[in-house]
Write a structure and sequence with these properties.
Mean pLDDT: 81
CATH architecture of one domain: 3-Layer(aba) Sandwich
Largest sheet: 6 strands, mixed
Number of strands: 6
CATH superfamily of one domain: P-loop containing nucleotide triphosphate hydrolases
Number of helices: 6
Strand order of the largest sheet: 2-3-1-4-5-6
Structural class: alpha/beta
Shape: elongated
Oligomer: single chain
Helix content: 40-55%
CATH topology of one domain: Rossmann fold
Low-confidence stretches: 197-204
CATH class of one domain: Alpha Beta
Strand content: 15-25%
């Protein structure tokens, strides 16, 4: 018996189903491609573990050490881990040790801790001839406008006097304190971190040059094709 030919309506339904399936397959492939490209773009970060010697009034050294278990932060391509140790004793005598940075600290809320730093700590740390920086802990306390706070320019003026970097840091969050400490360390080592920035800039510049060359080549190819077509028409 001759095979019964499918009706036009049935043919249309089959075609619609096929079109829907093709669209779904394309969508699935696109999604899979998107997922793989996102996974390829995962950033690999370099871990920077800094040993920091905390120098200053015993109360302020204790302030910093309280946050020791929370001193982690992500900055650009770096995973920062700060490993602090007390760098002065109760009398303010500095312990000469191996550290990436000697961080001289004062409490923004207590001017006496600034006097202690000036008279007992900073001259000794300077004599060690090692990487040092000055930090006021508790930048956030300035929001209340309290009168007994240390002068606003304390960190910068002391930093200028001792030829190092200085800033007031947010103290309440360990991540912020870690980021601030690392920023002072990076600023104290411009030869290392400026080089990283320059290399990234150069790499980006090379990529842009390659892209510009490709764009110019594509434009030239299109122009040549148009001219060829014009000649053929003539």
């Amino acid at each position: 018996m001759a095979k019964k030919e499918a009706k036009p309506k049935e043919k249309k339904e089959k075609k619609d189903k096929k079109d829907k399936k093709d669209k779904k397959d394309k969508k699935d492939k696109k999604n899979d491609k998107g997922k793989s490209s996102r996974s390829d773009k995962k950033v690999t970060r370099e871990t920077q573990r800094l040993e920091v010697s905390i120098c200053g009034h015993p109360d302020v050294v204790d302030m910093y050490m309280v946050k020791s278990s929370d001193l982690n932060a992500v900055i650009d391509s770096y995973q920062i881990d700060i490993d602090p140790d007390p760098g002065t004793n109760a009398e303010g005598q500095v312990i000469d040790t191996e550290a990436d940075l000697f961080l001289c600290v004062y409490d923004v809320r207590n001017r006496k801790t600034v006097d202690f730093l000036k008279s007992k700590v900073l001259p000794e740390v300077k004599n060690l001839n090692k990487k040092m920086a000055i930090a006021g802990l508790g930048l956030e306390y300035r929001m209340g406008g309290r009168d007994e706070l240390a002068d606003m320019g304390t960190a910068s003026s002391l930093a200028k006097q001792y030829g190092c970097r200085g800033a007031e840091l947010i103290y309440c969050e360990g991540e912020q304190l870690a980021a601030g400490t690392f920023s002072l360390y990076a600023a104290s080592n411009p030869e290392k971190y400026n080089k990283d920035t320059e290399e990234k800039t150069e790499e980006g510049g090379d990529k842009k040059k390659k892209k510009d060359k490709k764009d110019k080549k594509d434009k030239k190819d299109k122009k040549d094709k148009k001219e060829k077509k014009k000649k053929e028409k003539k």
